Amino acid sequence: MDVLFLAARVLFLIFAAINLKSMSWRLISCSIVVALLAADMMVTCTGSRAADYAFGAILGAGVLQSVRFLLLVRPLEEYRHESDKVPAYQLPFIQRLFWILKLICSPRGIGWSFKAENSVIPVDPRHRTRASFIASRLRWLLSHYLLFDAATLYIRCNPALLSGASVTSQGYIMQCLNLAASFCQFYAILTCIHCVSAVLAVGANLDEPQAWPQPFGHLEDAYTIRKFWGCVGTQTICDAG
């Protein structure tokens, strides 16, 4: 993350909090932010394919987010959070900044008016007290850490994956195993991060357990490509299924 990226994110927050009414000014503000992100995309190279891919995905998401919140919608007027006492556009500028920051940190729309119906699996009713929720997430943390450790061990013991060779270089069966190990590693680390964050937030009384549903959907719902990406694979980053 460099200066261009940080400048783009700061300007995005400021422009969104200003609540520009003119379409011309909204187009200009969106263009400025997108131009900064595009410039950063052109000049940033870490030397690692995985890191470059991750950074490119972050920049791409930033572009889409800018188009959505600066050009297509006026979030301060069109969206509400369940904790809002007054419409967001009536808040002082600094509070609007933090409101926008809270909005973009909630891509699944939990607690927001834009959350799609049935897009997020709610917290199990048995785990809606703080103690039971924390206990359940600690169990998840342990089980998914073991899964992450097993997947990482497999990857480190596979010479093809260590050498950077194609996943197809070991034949079809090994290709499936290699892809499964990579997916399990990604799935497990995201779930672990989510569990730690949930335990800290709920344990510190910053959030209710209902604000931290599981990060991935059920595999049995992945019977179509749309269902997989909308309801299972991207539960952590999307609000529509």
From TrEMBL:
Protein name: Unplaced genomic scaffold scaffold_40, whole genome shotgun sequence
Species name: Pisolithus microcarpus 441
